[in-house]
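Two proteins follow. First one:
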Amino acid sequence: MLFPTIDFAVFFVVVFTASWLLRPWPRAWKWAILVASYIFYGWWDWRFVGLLAASTVITQVGAIVVTRGGHRKATLALTVASQLSLLVWFKYYGFFAVNVANGLHRLGVGSPLPVLAVALPIGISFYTFMGISYVVDCYRGRLQAAPWLDAAVYLAFFPHLIAGPIVRGPELLPQLRPEALRGGERAIDSGRAAWLIMAGLAKKVVISSFLARAIVDPVFAVPGKHSGLEVLVAVYAYAIQIYADFSGYTDIAIGVALLLGFRFPENFDAPYTATSMQDFWRRWHITLSRWLRDYVYIPLGGNRQGRWATVRNIMITMAIGGLWHGAAWTFVAWGLFHGAAQSVGMLRRHGKRPARAVPPWMSRFATFHLVCLGWLLFRAESIGSAMKLVSRLGHPGRAPLVTPLVIVVIAGSLAAQYAPGDAARRAQERVASWGVAAQGGALAATLYAITLLAPAGVAPFIYYRF
């Protein structure tokens, strides 16, 4: 069920009404939201509802055991291994089997593994990571195992279920307590929620969809038919497309959660204004960055063991981050590219000789282009295709896909990231001060404009396949 569809609009009206009618009865509210969340997930494929339930059972049993004591370390290891085994089977088995088969074929040996077409359940990477963080936080003593119903709602809550943000237990579980559900903590910020939902729809339905169809998809599909200028602009366009697509989903998810009285962590902070690759990851997919830092990088030793051990830890962390995005060598290469770029930056900052100061504009320019080079790997169908795209950058020729509208959309989207940090907040406050009729009229006009500008049909969000 896509957010920008009539199906979801009808679904949410029913859920919103039930949510507020059931506020005085927290247990009934939780059951209603849990059922609604499973319907939302099952809308794609009912076969995977059982997988979500199984992941929940594994997670909760592990959390209870590590909270109560006993074989805590063994239980943690078994729980995390069980969660990862589901992720590995559904997401990585085919990739692993094909690569083993290809390697053995070159050696003249038959493959011991059958090559199976395993369907990828949507959202599995997100709720697996949420489950792991919940159990690890219980093991570390930062969290107590929640009641079964709360844990089930935490993992399945439909606004974040398919593509995040990756909400941790301490961020969501306290909001599920009976006193929070009944009390004033559930008062909603309807103005901010409406703003986020409209902004998310505009990003996804208008900007992302337009750039995908106008230049990104044609160029990446057949790079050999396009000039260097078209390839270059397509790479810039993809940087905007994936930002508009993913941050648009996050905006809608946070806005929908707000309407139900819940607050999610922010997931983006003007990432294309970053002054370094490390700064980029403080601003891009923030909840994943924090997850990788706290549950991979720091346990590996972080930066506590010297410069070269830090480089190792960065590379391992970013390789895992790349592979998390998909079972393909392009994602591994993308992760390693970001790891190498961060490592170079770290070595430069902490070298024996102080690094020369670079003007902020130059740092932003260089960082943005490094990120775009990484996006080329991320979007390409294969490493060979990525190399072909790079080789086309200097190729002369006509560029009919580079239209004035494409340039304006790319430039305008980049410029918007440099708007003052409180500009959106001030605009929200101004709209909130209007009367109900004025707010309703503005909302209707915005929806009409989005519908008018949107291409026909709505493609799934890019991060649905992760």
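Second one, unrelated to the first:
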Amino acid sequence: MSERMKTNLLRILLVALVLALWEFLAFRGLADPFYISRPSSILIDFKNLFVSGEVWPHVYITMQATIIGLALGCAGGVVTAFLMARFRMVEKILDPLIMAVYGIPKLALGPLFILWFGLGINSKIFLAFIWVFFIMYFNAYGGFKNVEPRLVNAAKLMGANRLQIIVKIILPSSLPWLFTGLRAGLGVALLGAIVGEYIGSTAGLGHLVQYAGNMFNTTRVFSTILIMSLIMMLMNEGVKRAEKWILRWKPSEL
């Protein structure tokens, strides 16, 4: 049995053990299902959400805010990091301002975004954007500043111009850092969209969780959380595959 198969098997066994223990405690009355529900009830409600089609509009709204916020945050973070890494004066001007804004609790900005942009999707996009921006900025900045100077000097000696150095040296060398930021940004983009929906919205997975919580429907809360987890797993797997394909030139670590 390969190491990967063994790891997957152990992971499945661990999850199955936790679910079985959870089901047993709820079934025997050792834990109140009103507060923790039951895995069997959650799976039934999960199935009903998709079969009835009730969940699809909420998934669409959340994914729309997540993907747009992720794209804008990644673009803004990468461009800002590149300008600061490339131009010393830009770094001196922007660095204290970025750190000052970064120190503000993003959750505290949620009500302001609702006030500025309303209860529609724009406030969720902006909340996702602001979280992704800083994650991507810090990773991209680290990548741009850690480019091997010998590679740049060698390219200059070979007659490469500035654009060629950026495209052939700086960006490829920074790709592992950028993918690290992207994978971290996936989680905060989804979190930002859901938090925005939770604070004020009429649709979306965050709204679905809030409504279920207000109705004391613990099963619906858990089934919605399960949907969020699956979305995050699928997005992360997609980025991992893209990273593996794009960085296929990079030697594998032992």
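SUMMARY FIELD: The chain has a mean pLDDT of 86. The chain is about 85% helix and 0% strand.
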